[in-house]
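Q: Please design a sequence for this.
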């Protein structure tokens, strides 16, 4: 008789955002006359930029002619896109990254979840706490995390690096030695960042202990401060210890069309084995390639016209972030983030858990956010609001919250 992968049975009963969805659905059914404003799940709301739409239309026309039709994409992605990414995202910033070190995918979430497959099953992982749940969950499925303690919300074989108000939400080097270190900068959910000097400490540490930094830079387009690097490869020594994940979802609105990429330098080795070659084999075997139409659309992101249009959208969301941040401050909340990321991290009222506050906002204001405890044990007592809604809804949500 067939058997299931028992590691999947170790996962907590429900994914964070599934639980939120069920609660919101129940509230809507019980209150059909009330309008809900969603400042929870990080989906974008602005339409694709005109330059991107134009590029997609042209690509569709190409697919309709025999002489310009394209079937399966190359394993790594089309060279025209990889070369453009290498130049504009990396080489123009002084980073030594070549086109063949870039792997086009259907998004950073997939890459973050799948990259662990090329590393040993007994690898020890370290994660910021709180942080995006996919990092831990994918390693649970791989059997690396040990046993789950429902009381503490922690896994026995995971190194947690608390990011709290006391340390400025910047993780400290762990006392135990990890093999894989997950860093998300700007961070989801806290919206905080690491400076160039802080990130250099991590790169030096990883090289010293022989660890790999899995660097999620999905929100780099929102970085506004000059001392915050847009890529880990701006830091000397990163090529021998880091892998970077990027996404077109949050900067260019590709959440509905899906595209991202991973950067795996050829200098990252385990003995004589290049991680690059392992990922190339895994990528080519298990990924069928992002469609030509979508990769051509991504080229418009790097055009002069596309850059200007996308920057307007980033500015739109960051204006929302300022509205949320300032509005919560006026309402007496303790708030963080919202400067280099489209996330606001707030401390919930005394005596409430993060899920209590979720229910409170939903019931009293019809506003949906994300409980901090869903991102890790150190997230308890905090709450995430996102700036990805419309400006009108963002203003309305803050008015509701301030009226409580």
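A: Design:
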């Amino acid at each position: 008789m067939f058997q299931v992968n028992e590691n999947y049975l170790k996962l907590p009963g429900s994914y964070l955002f599934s639980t939120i969805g069920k609660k919101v659905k129940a509230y809507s059914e019980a209150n059909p006359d009330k309008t809900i404003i969603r400042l929870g799940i990080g989906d974008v709301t602005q339409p694709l930029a005109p330059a991107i739409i134009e590029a997609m239309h042209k690509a569709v026309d190409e697919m309709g002619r025999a002489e310009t039709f394209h079937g399966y994409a190359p394993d790594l992605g089309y060279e025209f896109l990889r070369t453009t990414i290498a130049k504009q995202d990396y080489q123009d910033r002084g980073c030594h990254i070549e086109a063949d070190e870039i792997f086009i995918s259907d998004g950073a979430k997939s890459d973050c979840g799948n990259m662990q497959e090329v590393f040993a099953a007994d690898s020890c992982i370290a994660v910021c706490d709180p942080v995006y749940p996919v990092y831990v969950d994918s390693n649970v499925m791989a059997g690396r995390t040990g046993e789950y303690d429902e009381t503490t919300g922690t896994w026995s074989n995971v190194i947690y690096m608390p990011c709290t108000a006391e340390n400025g939400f910047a993780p400290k080097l762990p006392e135990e030695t990890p093999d894989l270190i997950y860093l998300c900068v700007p961070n989801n959910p806290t919206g905080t960042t690491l400076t160039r000097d802080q990130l250099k400490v991590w790169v030096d540490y990883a090289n010293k202990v022989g660890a790999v930094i899995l660097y999620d830079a999905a929100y780099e387009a929102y970085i506004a401060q000059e001392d915050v690097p847009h890529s880990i490869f701006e830091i000397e020594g990163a090529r021998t210890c880091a892998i970077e994940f990027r996404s077109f979802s949050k900067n260019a609105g590709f959440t509905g069309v899906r595209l991202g990429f991973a950067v795996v330098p050829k200098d990252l080795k385990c003995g004589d084995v290049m991680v690059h070659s392992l990922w190339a084999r895994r990528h080519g075997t298990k990924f069928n390639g992002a469609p030509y139409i979508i990769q051509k659309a991504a080229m418009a992101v790097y055009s002069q016209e596309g850059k200007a249009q996308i920057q307007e959208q980033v500015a739109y969301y960051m204006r929302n972030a300022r509205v949320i941040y300032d509005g919560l401050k006026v309402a007496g909340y303790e708030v963080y983030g919202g400067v280099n990321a489209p996330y606001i991290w707030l401390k919930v009222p005394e005596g409430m858990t993060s899920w209590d506050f979720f229910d409170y906002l939903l019931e009293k204001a019809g506003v949906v956010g994300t409980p901090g405890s869903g991102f890790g044990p150190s997230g308890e007592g905090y709450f995430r609001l996102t700036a990805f809604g419309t400006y009108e809804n963002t203003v309305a949500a803050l008015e509701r919250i301030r009226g409580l």
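Q: Thanks. Anything notable?
A: The first strand starts at residue 37 and ends at 38. Residues 304-330 form the longest helix (27 residues).
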